Amino acid sequence: MAKINYVYWKDKIGGETEKQELEAFSYGFTVGPHGEWEMLIAKEDKEVKKNELVNIKIEEIEFPPKAMVLPCNIMRHALGIVSSLAAVGEPKSVEERRVMDEALFHPICDGVVNKGDLLSVVNIFYASVERRLARGAAEKWLSERYRY
Length: 148
What we know:
The protein is mainly β. It has a domain of about 100 residues. About 5% of the residues lie in helices and about 55% in strands. The chain is built from 1 helix and 10 strands. The longest helix is centred in the C-terminal third of the chain and has 9 residues. The model has no long low-confidence stretch (mean pLDDT about 85).
């Protein structure tokens, strides 16, 4: 178990940040044989400059509970790569449904990304948490239930 500070954007990317102190555990997981591809499509026109990271609104993508999202780096926009997906507000765990509506885009040359452009493709894999508890999680669980 580790105590961490989870810092996130409260209102908009690049806007006000907020911090939550959490207890975090490392867990194992198993990835199933089924996966999906999801397209990241620009929802706005955006001028980009080489090596200046920019956030671009994308068509909303919903990730179901227990879904892992990994980039598919061979499908990308000619002007750059998607570094990460983002959403504002309180963080959600992997066990919850998540919705992403912005991409952090790293341009490799100057140009304009247009509404409707394919920015990238992501791989969505379904995972299940391993049954065993990570070191520290079992002790915490026991101490909370058997305080006498």
